Amino acid sequence: MRLSRRTLLGAGLASFVGGCSSDRPLVDRLVVAGGERGGFYLEFAQLLATQLRAAKVARTVEVRSTEGSLQNLELLRLRQADLAICLADAAAQSREVVALGRVYENYLQCVVRAAGPARKLPDLVGKRVSAGPPGAGAALTTNRLLSAAGMHAERAPVIANLHLSDAADALAAGRIDAMFWSGGVPTRRLTDLSAQVPIRLLPLDRWLAPLRTTYGVVYQRAQIPAGTYSGVEQVSTIGVPNLLICRPEVPRAIASKIVDVLVNRAAGLVPAAAVGAHYLDPNSLIGTSPLKLHPGAADRYRTVHG
């Protein structure tokens, strides 16, 4: 199919020339929608940008700091980003995107002060809780979790929609009683918080079954290892796969080259401090349900598998 400049995404993809020689980048510029400062999304996006430049996928790669998955989907829709990091449950709400790979596990983290009384999720009824900013996938997952736990109407927490750093500051100062965050582990901003004030993570896996009944198997049981944050014990929580996504009209050659980066440069895509699960091998990268793989990515994975 012949693509017009208007159809293609972004300034970088608008300059794509299919016949580029192997020693030249495929495009001049790509824009990657990442996440909040201090979070895993943005850190992964920055590592990805470095590898995309090194592999000559693009001459320059701009990483945008965003509120998270929901804003990233909107940036793709508006053609203000070419690639995006997105939670699978959030991505399932869009019919305008496809996946390039499943890249790592996201952990829903409910953080409270260790000195406080909260030991389980229902202890937060009527308490001041940050669910993350409106553009974050954490806000979507948290609202679904609270509904599954029956924490609505008169049993609802008092919800604030704070950014990661603001929520951590508010929790440390006692202005809120808990904060939800969905990301890889450890999340750097939460590591800093645990050094500032003792924290506890609440177990959330009790509500996995009702979440899966309502929303499907996109939700999984996940373990956050002991010591992920200072003084924090192992805890069971809700895991959601994180996907690298794009719009379907991204040229096949670019999608294929990005798969090569995910497969062959995996070591350069894992933050040094990461202890959570990542899926940067061909057998795991292809598990992008509920999204379909981009056709160029699917073809490349078939070649990799042999």
From TrEMBL:
Gene3D superfamilies assigned: Periplasmic binding protein-like II (3.40.190.10)
What NCBIfam families does this protein map onto? TRAP_TAXI
The identity of this protein, by name, is TAXI family TRAP transporter solute-binding subunit
User: Which InterPro entries does the record associate with it?
Assistant: TRAP_TAXI
Q: Which SUPFAM superfamilies match?
A: Periplasmic binding protein-like II
